[in-house]
Amino acid sequence: MKRALLLLGILAALLAAGRPGDSVFTQTGRTPDAQRIARIENGLLSPVAIQGQPARAFTLASRMEHYNVPGVSIAFFDHGQIAWTRSYGFADVASKKPVNPDTIFEAGSISKPTTALAALHLVQEGKLDLDQDVNQKLVAWKVPENEFTEEQKVTLRRILSHSAGLIVHGFPGYAADEPVPSILQILNGEKPANTAPIRVDVVPGTVWRYSGGGYLILQLLLTETTHEPFPQLLQELVLGPVGMTHSVFDQPLLASLRSTAATPYGANGDPVKGGAHTYPEMAAAGLWTTPSDLAKMAIEVQAEFAGKSGKILSQAMTKQMLSVQKDPSGLGFFVQEESGGPRFGHEGDDEGFVADLVAYTAGSGQGVAIMTNANRGADLIPEIVRAVAKEYAWPDFHPKERIVAKVAPAVLQTYAGQFEIPGVAKLTISFKDGRLFVQNTGDSDVDEMFPESDTRFFILSQDIVVDFVRDEKQAVTKLVIQIEGQTLEAKRNP
């Protein structure tokens, strides 16, 4: 949900609490392979490896401690059923309450594909049209027309595939002591809303751009079409039929469920002040759930894709949902069609919670749902997914291999110094024993920088490429840092 901001946070903690407790193991369905699970627990993998060398491996317990992630819950599914679940650490550090498979977490943006299932069900019933201008159905509020909407309109298909030209990437939610705005106030960007008005600023249908704002419009569209409260509607159309018995969209969380909820934690390991944020933007970020319930939803989508079930959608509608509309989006899920799949899934992060869901339609239909109660779950979860992918021979999620070049120590030494991305990070590059290292100021962690060329370097703990830039006098003046499609510059301090 706040992915772009999270990336900056990762960079600020580039090289960066409760200690994990004993794991709680439960099994359902087929007998789990304990040895495979143990290999996953002891084989978390870094995102980058040096060609010809194995990727660095870590234990789950050590990485939970490293990233200040108190609790983790995992559900692995295969052959149409949950094969095994595991839970680790604490749902609440202060009370030492352990995570168990029924502990609920905020799922963040995994709310979006869940909502998309409900929307497509209404399309299937003829109550909504994928390609109709949503303003023809909206009543209390309409998408403001402007020069970008003169010919192309905001449609349900474009909202679901993040191609409607709408702004507002995501929502930070509202802390316990903050007033919660109405849907109309959020749509209009009026206080106490903490996000900008939701508007169109590029021609609908022309570009892909992630928009939580579009899903708030969808939330209004669904409630006005059915005349039902959003949590009740999603219970009737998705959660109930799939058997997601530990899932709700109520915001704030119902008092009766708070004892089963995990406490959210920030990047430094401190609990989020006041507890979980409230997300009135329920379609975009409001789902409380468990990995097992997310697995049940994915299994149902797999079954509908194969024509073996129809609790929510027909096979034809499911295939449309899992077809790329605007790369990388299908209708709600992110979709990858190149791995014998398609593979589908979605990430999610609310304040103090990070989750991920990955599923395949090919083969035995394997997949995994992982939920954590800390912001740096965004660092931990990919390492777990890579371990699962290696253990079950998935075609994706392997560490990226890079080649190390030979660079003269005299050249490396010229890169030593301090560099700063204003307001984000201060980095110290040091030269020692013929090697180059980087450290984020104030952190104890130090990463070696490996050369791909005389000017380009990488590290193993993040998929980051760093280019050293020289001026006309050949003095090093700045770093250009590339991380997940973003480019940042760090100027060298005198």
What's the structural domain tally?
A: 2
Assign the CATH class of the largest domain. Answer: Alpha Beta
N/C terminus separation: 37 Å
CATH superfamily of the largest domain: DD-peptidase/beta-lactamase superfamily
Q: Under the CATH scheme, which architecture of the largest domain would be assigned?
A: 3-Layer(aba) Sandwich
Beta strand count: 22
Instruction: Please tell me how large the radius of gyration is.
Output: 23 Å
Mean pLDDT level: 92
- The helix count comes to 13
In terms of per-residue confidence, which ranges show pLDDT below 50 for 5 or more consecutive residues?
1-30
Fraction of helical residues: 25-40%
The percentage of residues in β strands lies in 15-25%
What fold name stands as the CATH topology of the largest domain? Answer: Beta-lactamase
Alpha-beta classification: alpha+beta
In short:
This protein has 13 helices and 22 strands.
Write the layout of secondary structure elements.
Elements: H1 3-12, E1 24-26, H2 34-41, E2 44-45, E3 48-50, E4 57-58, H3 60-66, E5 71-78, E6 81-92, E7 97-98, E8 105-106, H4 111-124, H5 156-160, H6 183-188, H7 212-226, H8 230-242, H9 282-285, E9 288-289, H10 291-305, H11 315-321, E10 334-336, E11 343-350, E12 353-360, E13 367-372, H12 377-391, E14 400-402, H13 409-413, E15 417-421, E16 425-432, E17 435-440, E18 447-451, E19 456-458, E20 464-470, E21 476-483, E22 486-492
Parallel strand pairs: 3-14
Antiparallel strand pairs: 1-6, 2-4, 5-6, 5-13, 6-7, 8-9, 10-11, 11-12, 12-13, 15-16, 15-22, 16-17, 17-18, 18-19, 19-20, 20-21, 21-22
Helix pairs in contact: 2-12, 4-7, 4-8
